[in-house]
């Protein structure tokens, strides 16, 4: 193991591997440490969804940019991450929701996201198995999509290594070395790595890392909430390609896996804060109640697997991204709630540019994601949650 | 052996010995990553047939002892169940 680097990135999920790749691309000497295998945190448990349909300017702009990045990512990383623009379809059950959809659409369109209002009949054309009678209208953006989280993390890591980064799996950070408010490196269970820059990309575990650096655990109050998914046996391609979600039905959603065609079913039921990832039966009943109402034919489809992971939530469900002013050289990108996978390419790029060049061309609103906003008691409007 | 002379290790997702060996040769030796890149153990059988074979392939190719290679997590349900049964909505059947 190397004992010295310019930058140490803590956490090997979609965020950490993206940051490491982008740093290596800019010529930085970077080491990434991950306590388990790459992706074992939230990333390998996510629902694969990538959307621009947020309800605030900062997230819409960042995600519009991110979709442009996703489109070229396989080519850039020379590895197919299986990105597909199969869309996101939200469904309204009341007139009030239809009105809210119209407002959202206006905002999306203002920033160039081509969302539009569609009829239940049009929705049924997009998702042939949909129980369209239950809905009044759809909020449809065909340019949203999905990608394979396993391949994405692998591809970022592979390319980062090709560009000179070192990645140490099964290596746990146990302490952060800080002297005179300057970061000096990290201690791990396999030895010390000296570095002038350390990036906390540990998401659900980020407050523990902050504490190691001498910060209050509540300074950035990220809490782990257990969210779960079930996956069915494969269905013929094209049956439920977009992510389909009636928000009024407890934020429940269904989406066909872009690779094997199995259907991922999720719902808003959450447990926590907790670091426990045991799947629960109440989830199974809740999620299937809604999933079989959205797509009645799912009743006849076999459930193959259920698992749990974390939404690493901040009080406004927006991540903390940026520099921590109390400690020179200490950065964070964590607290991504239910939408960190989709943000990975742009967030990694922006962080790397911030570290190496002091500024970035990525349209990431640093003020919006400011890690110091919580201690000022200054929250953003709650980021729209689903997948 | 399949028609093309390939040896199928994971029957659910049709993964061959050749694919697994090629990945290990590229340096991917962790069963968790091999599982996810090739989708072994992720089909309806939950890895019952393929995972022990994959472990012995990794052991042989990397010189590790099979005991050092931990099985990936087993996911519930152990056997596939129709969603309708779980929501108690298959009465008409
Ligand atoms: C059920 C579910 C569905 C979801 N659906 C979507 C979706 O459709 N779209 C989407 O964009 N997002 C989704 N998400 C959210 C998404 O999974 C996360 O926001 C994203 O994976 C965060 O990535 P990350 O790299 O920041 O964190 P993680 O993947 O959690 O990575 C953090 C890493 O840090 C490591 N670590 C922690 N402590 C240490 C230490 N001391 N030393 C070394 N390493 C350490 C961990 O082991 C972990 O691997 C979903 C999440 C869940 C649970």
UniProtKB/TrEMBL annotation, chain A:
Top-level taxon of the source organism: Archaea
Start and end residues of each FAD dependent oxidoreductase domain: 7-354
Gene Ontology CC: one annotated term: cytoplasm
Record has Oxidoreductase as a keyword: yes
Oxidoreductase is among the record's keywords: yes
Gene3D superfamilies: D-Amino Acid Oxidase, subunit A, domain 2 (3.30.9.10), FAD/NAD(P)-binding domain (3.50.50.60)
InterPro entries: FAD-dep_OxRdtase, FAD/NAD-bd_sf
Keyword field: Oxidoreductase
Pfam families listed in its UniProt record: DAO
Any GO molecular function: oxidoreductase activity
Record protein name field: Sarcosine oxidase subunit beta
Organism encoding this protein: Thermococcus litoralis (strain ATCC 51850 / DSM 5473 / JCM 8560 / NS-C)
From TrEMBL, chain B:
Name of the protein in its database record: D-nopaline dehydrogenase
Keyword Transcription regulation attached: no
MF GO annotations: oxidoreductase activity
Keyword annotations of the record: Oxidoreductase
Pfam family, one: Fer2_BFD
Ranges of residues in domain BFD-like [2Fe-2S]-binding: 8-59
Keyword Oxidoreductase tagged: yes
Organism: Thermococcus litoralis (strain ATCC 51850 / DSM 5473 / JCM 8560 / NS-C)
InterPro entries linked to this entry: BFD-like_2Fe2S-bd_dom (IPR007419), BFD-like_2Fe2S-bd_dom_sf (IPR041854), Metab_Enz_Cyan_OpOx_G3PDH (IPR051691)
Lineage, uppermost ranks: Archaea, Methanobacteriati, Methanobacteriota, Thermococci, Thermococcales
